[in-house]
Design brief:
By secondary structure, this protein is α/β, with parallel strands linked by helices. 31% of the residues lie in helices and 21% in strands.
């Protein structure tokens, strides 16, 4: 079995963390969110700090465009985007996929919110947020709610292949409102 196949096989056997696992990924609540500028699926630059003082931001890190779980999650966000916008929130989805792949992914599934490419330097933003899986070369499935002042107010991290609960995300946005 190739090393890539071995890594992918590992994903299918992930259950729950045990006492020998590394500490939970991500930034602690109350930490300033690292600023970044990335290109979206249209090649436009998006800078996190441009929302400061105006909107809360939900950062949704996802490992692979076109995978079943990521497609389901992002189409779920698309279907509930008006609920996120109710809280005057920007939703930014980030992956290590190339901008061109994200454009096709967004077009195919009608994803009408920014999909940001953390492709080069590969995974730099995911690394800054503590959610880059160097072995797989992708961002771990993680979410962060960043308040209007640029502070992380909530985060959640899922073991692959588990998907996230969008209702939980919206509940935490409700507490910021």
């Amino acid at each position: 079995m190739s090393s890539h196949a071995t890594r992918l096989a590992r994903l299918s056997s992930v259950s729950s963390p045990n006492s020998t696992d590394a500490p939970a990924p991500g930034l602690p609540v109350g930490t300033p969110a690292p600023d970044f500028t990335l290109r979206d699926q249209f090649g436009q630059e998006v800078t996190l700090s441009s929302f400061r003082g105006q909107k809360a931001v939900v950062l949704v890190f996802f490992p692979w465009a076109f995978s079943n779980v990521c497609t389901g999650e992002l189409t779920g966000i698309r279907e509930r985007l008006d609920e996120f916008l109710t809280f005057d929130t920007e939703v930014l989805a980030l992956s290590t996929d190339a901008t061109y792949s994200l454009r096709v992914f967004a077009d195919r599934d009608g994803l009408n919110f920014p999909l940001l490419s953390d492709f080069w330097p590969h995974g730099a933003v995911a690394s800054a947020y503590g959610v880059f899986d160097a072995e797989l070369g992708v961002a771990r499935r993680s979410s962060f709610v960043v308040d209007r002042e640029g502070i992380v107010r909530w985060s959640v991290h899922h073991e692959l292949p588990d998907s996230r609960d969008l209702g939980e995300h919206l509940a935490h946005l409700h507490h910021l409102a």
